[in-house]
Automatic annotation (TrEMBL):
It holds the Pfam family Glyco_hydro_1. It comes from Capitella teleta. The lineage of its organism: Eukaryota, Metazoa, Spiralia, Lophotrochozoa, Annelida. Homodimer. Its EC number is 3.2.1.21. This is beta-glucosidase. It comes from the Eukaryota. One of its GO terms (biological process) is carbohydrate metabolic process. Residues 1-17 form the signal peptide. Belongs to the glycosyl hydrolase 1 family. The active site is at E392 (nucleophile). Keywords: Glycoprotein, Glycosidase, Hydrolase, Signal. GO terms for molecular function: beta-glucosidase activity.
Length: 520
């Protein structure tokens, strides 16, 4: 039966553009996501400490229009409204993050903030009462400022400091929270925060600090996983993993050099963090080779990429119960020999990134739905078909329309490609999370770029939330658990025409009559 349906499905889906009418497996779960700094506001009330994003936005000159997350969606005060929206969507889970500095104003566990603990207890309890499972991200980029003052993620002590924070969260909330994510998108917060300086803490060291910071973050992730695994899993029985982000990188041409370059580009983004955890262990070979070669050419005595000891490599390997994936867009990759004068994680890759000018786009997102299917297959092939949870996927716009047909189109085609990856390719994808519940503080783009299923009016102190067309689309998608075959179109039954006063007798076939009776 399964085999037959696979053949039928393959026959129906011959090209990338074909739509697959089918439903997701029964175990499939649907959710939406947010992050603390992007929605909570209440930046300085009830004992919360500052985070690096408070500092970064307040400094001015870093973010569009010098906006801040001081109020954002005011979810600190309006979380009950958020829970209602989630309930209306009918999603199985809500992925949100903890504000570390709200719980631990100094970042350290010896001085907890009871109001912060109360806030997350209330949110978690309200979710469970509404039948929505909490999925909690420990670190979605808002590091307590005091920890940054001590060196932030450059500081090796962060491995244990993060671990203590994680244990603190498991102790407080692990009786009710059964899904944990250590880090959201290490690639983004490290390259943006320590490479380009376009995110907090705003440092620019694209050739050196990005690599040393990633080294610390990977170790911190592993310690938190081990703590949960040894101390909490036996009684709390949940899962814990990491969320990595990646574009799909399509070769620019059939040239073997471009094909190799596209593979290299994924290794330098996804593989950087995935190979140590899910792959062969340690950094991808191609990263080690390229960065060593470039470093020596640049006059360094050793590679700018640090090395793990064998013990560290083993300690990190296998430390995720699932493969958390954030995915938004695709690019084309061409091989290139970059001049190696300037040390940079971008130059180290020896590639040129391009896009196809026919691709539909919005801000930095190019709409390439099959890219997600290709990426899921790449992950399956590269890491032994791990169970994947898609922790973010979504589409932006810069207007405030409620009729967001382009976002509906994006969700429809991207989720359909997840379905294809499961049904046609055998990828083990277990859940899908739409980014995001509502318009919120979109980092450097602040409020100029919107990703929400719900519109938020940031001019109104009440921050009212209004569903967009995409909210109704997701509600229906969740209710149907996919895309059931559309009902056959029944031809409209016309009234028999009356000619010359004589009613002509027209026999209407029974099935159409039945449908006609139902409608009237
Ligand atoms: C995710 O990051 C985050 O997890 C989430 O918090 C965020 O809101 C969501 O995606 C939507 O962005 O225009 O060329 O300067 C994605 C990180 C940061 C990647 C901004 C693209 C813009 C590139 N994104 N970056 S560009």
């Amino acid at each position: 039966m399964r085999f037959l349906s696979l053949i039928l499905a393959c026959a129906a889906v011959a090209t990338r553009a074909d739509f697959l009418y089918d439903t997701f497996p029964d175990y499939f779960q649907w959710g939406v996501a947010t992050a603390s700094y992007q929605i909570e506001g209440a930046w300085n009330v009830d004992g919360k400490g500052d985070s690096i994003w408070d500092t970064y936005t307040h400094a001015g000159g870093n973010v569009v229009k010098n906006e801040t997350g001081d109020i954002a969606c005011d979810s600190y005060n309006k979380y009950e409204d958020d829970v209602q929206l989630l309930q209306d969507l009918g999603v199985n889970f809500y992925r949100f993050s903890l504000s570390w500095a709200r719980l631990l104003p100094t970042g350290r566990v010896d001085q907890p903030n009871q109001a912060g603990i109360d806030y997350y207890n209330s949110l978690i309890d309200a979710l469970l009462a509404a039948g929505v499972e909490p999925m909690v991200t420990l670190y979605h980029w808002d590091l307590p400022q005091e920890l940054d003052d001590q060196g932030g993620w450059e500081n090796e002590d962060m491995v244990q400091i993060f671990n203590e924070y994680a244990v603190f969260a498991f102790e407080l909330f692990g009786d009710r929270v059964k899904s944990w994510i250590t880090f959201n998108e290490p690639y983004v917060f490290i390259t943006m925060g320590y490479g380009q300086g376009a995110h907090a803490p705003g440092l620019q060291s694209p050739g050196e600090k990005v690599y040393t910071v990633a080294h610390v973050v990977l170790k911190a992730h592993a310690e938190a996983w081990h703590s949960y695994n040894e101390l909490f899993r036996p009684t709390q029985d949940g899962v814990i993993g990491i969320t990595l982000d990646s574009e799909w990188k399509e070769p620019y041409s059939d040239d073997p050099e471009d094909i190799e370059a596209a593979e290299r580009a994924i290794q330098f983004c996804l593989g950087w963090f995935a190979n140590p955890i899910f792959g062969s262990g340690g950094y991808p070979t191609v990263m080690k080779e390229k960065i060593l070669e470039k470093s020596l050419e640049q006059g360094y005595e050793e590679s700018r990429l640090p090395e793990f000891t064998e013990e560290e490599e083993n300690r990190i390997h296998g430390t995720s119960d699932f493969f958390g994936l954030n995915h938004y867009t695709t690019s084309l990759v061409q091989n290139a020999d970059r001049p190696s004068l300037v040390p940079s994680y971008l130059n180290d890759r020896d590639i040129i990134t391009r896009v196809n000018s026919t691709w539909d786009r919005s801000e930095w997102i190019f709409v390439v739905p099959w890219g997600l299917r290709s990426l899921l297959n790449w992950i399956s092939d590269s890491y032994g078909n791990p169970n994947v949870i898609i922790t973010e996927n979504g589409m932006s716009d810069s207007n405030a329309t409620l009729e967001d047909a382009h976002r509906v189109n994006y969700f429809r085609l991207y989720t359909n490609n997840v379905l294809k990856a499961i049904k046609l390719d055998g990828c083990d994808v277990r859940s899908y999370t739409a980014w995001t519940l509502m318009d919120n503080f979109e980092w450097a783009f602040a409020y100029d770029v919107r990703f929400g299923l719900h519109h938020v009016d940031f001019e109104d102190p009440e921050r009212p939330r209004t569903p967009k067309a995409s909210a109704e689309f997701i509600r229906q998608l969740v209710a149907d658990n996919g895309f059931p075959e559309p009902e056959a179109v029944i031809p409209e039954v016309l009234e028999p025409e009356i000619e010359n006063g004589d009613p002509e007798i027209v026999a209407i076939p029974e099935p159409i009559r039945a449908k006609f009776r139902q409608k009237h």
